[in-house]
Structure formats: C-alpha cells, structure tokens
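Chain A, query sequence.
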Amino acid sequence: MTRHSIQHGRTNIEYELICSRRRTLGITVHPDGRVTVRAPQRASTADVEAIVRKKSGWIVKKQLMFEQAPPPQPPPQYITGESHLYLGRAYPLALIWDSKRHVQLADDQFYLFTPDTASPERKEKLMREWYRARAKELFAQRLDACYPTAAAHGIPYPDLKIRLMKRRWGSCASSKSSILLNLRLIQTPIPCIDHVILHELAHFKQHYHNAAFYALMDDLLPDWRARREELNKIPVA
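Chain A, predicted structure.
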C-alpha cells in the first residue's frame, strides 16, 4: 500500500493505493473521508492518478455527503416508544405481552407481541421476520411493475433473492439471471426500491458504471439521480 494525493480545486485528495490481482480499478470513499484505490498490478501510478483525477469531483462530493450525514443511530433496543421504519416512514413501537410471538402494523404503530422475558435479540428476530415477509411480497410486486421498461431493452426477467447486507442495497448475477436486494430496502420509500431494482437490471446489459450504463439508466428511469440522492441519505446498515 502506498499513499498519494492530487489537487481538486482547493481540495487536496489523499488516497491509499493498493495493487492486487484484479482486472479493474475501484475507488472507495469511506464514511470517515478516507479514499482507497484498488488497482490491477499492471496499472502504472500515472494511469491510476489520471483516473483518480477524472473521478475527483465525485470523490469530493462523496466526502461532503458523509461529512453532512447525520451521526449513526444507536442499535435499536426494541422498547416501547422506539421508532422503526417501513417504506420510508417511521412508526412507534409498542410492546404487548403475549405468549404468541408476532408483529403487527396497525393504527400507525408497530405492535410487538412477546413475553416479557424475550431478549432484545429475539425481538429483533421477530421484527426481521416481519420485514422479510413484507419484502418478499412487495419486492416481487415492484419487480413486476418495473420490468416492462427493462424488457423493452432485451433484459431478461430475473430470479429475485433477498438478503440482509451491510454494504450494498443490491447486486446482480447476470450469469445466473438473478438480482439480490437488501432486506433493509423495505424500510425505504417505494421510489428508492424501484431505483435499486432498475439499477441491478441495467447491469444485465452494462456490467460497469460507465457512460453506456448511465445512458441506459436515463432511459429506464429518467429521475434516477434524484432517487439515488434520496437513497444515499439512508444508511445501508
């Protein structure tokens, strides 16, 4: 690993360069503002610097976004009065003693039915099971709603999988004709869910985030930039 820096206007961008056996160059801006560049071993320092300079505006914008982001929230305790998100809206939680464990959303409030002795981990599992059931149904509905636009570009209908992820809202495996959505997407507004679905479908035709990919996104979802900006305000994990 070596350290380098470039100048973007009045901003000095420092970055860590890590070379390894990879095919493409990747730039990561961390929440603390650090920048990591991972490049193929064959890439020269000059070539890497040229790409970093080309992406410098994006890097500074990303650093500013992290700087202005609200502080991370403490882990939920699953106690009465605590708020939990569903489709972009916060609902208060009420704990109700019941021998049958289950979760219900009614009257603009989450109700978590559980014995008093239930641990926070058990309560979290109950909430997660409720979210997963809703996500399985809603994500399939949103995929069906979004797909006709993608079908016009020859994109195949994918298998849909759901998993709790820490770093991504979604991913795709074009070789397996499948997309994977983060379970936490069920906590975001429907326009954000549609954005992630179409983003992953676009990767079936364009594997990399290049000009052709963004042109395809413009066709699939003209306001995708605004939706991405809204999604970026929500922590992935």
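DSSP finds six helices and eleven strands in the chain. The radius of gyration is 21 Å.
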